[in-house]
Design goal:
The structure is a homodimer. Chain A is mainly α. Chain A contains 9 helices and 2 strands; from the N terminus they run ααααααααββα. A two-stranded antiparallel sheet of chain A has the order 1-2.
């Protein structure tokens, strides 16, 4: 346990954000690569994501969300409005593919997208440029990039949780000490 | 999204459990190795775990929890009662150490402990042997080993969450779409 006080708002730093973004593919590969299928396909019920689904969802984000939306903001064209995001696109896009293929593709796309991001050499004023989220309204490039990081970590946590949930019954009385088993 | 029904109780399989246990150190290393310190020391307030604390806690489990408790069960001696577990032991044990040292130690201890576990060649009747948890009461070796897996995954999810929480404010309006930022 650390002795720091409750963290206050943390200012977004691009280089620091990239250190997390660049580790995500290797983290998923270490967690999931070569695992028996029951661990990677189990989910928490209808319309919930398995580990496999989480990786497919992250791939869709690389193609359709983060960098495309950043481009819309940076171009400051006639419309700043983002395309709505399809949270279930991976059902189509991952069909018939193996988890190894998805992990490879995610790794490749993330490398390319971070090269694009670094190549922009974004300035602080550029990070404050705005786009329009179709549901949420006005958002900045800085917020979009912070969301990319938090979204990665959220799907890592979700993947760990859905795997743990397989043993909800198997742990017996320890269930009372494992809040992850009853979280959604 | 997978099309499986809601998963029912899953029977514990030792070899399948080990496939998760053996991946945990590499997963934490991929996630945390070389990260700037603000990511690894931030926590969620008093008595909460940073990423650094999570790794220290996992180390303490390797030393004091899983294999020592399994031995108590397997020996079926005069007392089947486990020692109480100190959830904050890592405050002492990790003091002054670097995260790299902790990740190395966790990796080494986990390799040793899984070698011990595999070497036991546990039978189904042995997996049903009982010990006594100091608070929960009677538990089986099978439940202890399932708990080891769920505990790993719980601390992976907790680590991802505490890191994500750094950007709770930085994501702006996206906070409404990122439940991980307001979970404890």
């Amino acid at each position: 346990m650390s002795v720091q006080p409750v963290p206050g708002p943390v200012s977004f730093q691009l280089t620091e954000a990239i250190t997390v973004l660049e580790r995500t593919p290797a983290t998923f590969l270490a967690l999931l690569g070569g695992l028996p299928e029951p661990w990677t396909t189990c989910n928490e019920g209808p319309e919930t994501f398995s580990a496999f689904d989480n990786v497919g969802h992250l791939i869709h984000g690389e193609r359709a969300d983060w960098i495309p939306r950043a481009r819309i903001i940076l171009q400051q064209g006639a419309s700043l409005r983002f395309e709505p995001y399809d949270r279930f696109a991976q059902v189509r896009e991952s069909a018939g593919r193996t988890l190894v293929e998805l992990l490879d593709e995610f790794t490749r796309l993330r490398v390319e997208n971070l090269a694009t991001l670094r190549g922009w050499n974004l300035t602080e004023p550029e990070l404050d440029l705005k786009g329009e989220h179709p549901d949420l309204g006005p958002v900045t490039l800085r917020q979009l990039l912070a969301t990319w990081v938090a979204h990665d970590l959220g799907h890592l946590a979700q993947t760990a949780r859905v795997m743990a949930t397989r043993y909800r019954e198997a742990v017996g009385l320890w269930r009372a000490y494992l809040p992850i088993l009853d979280r959604r």
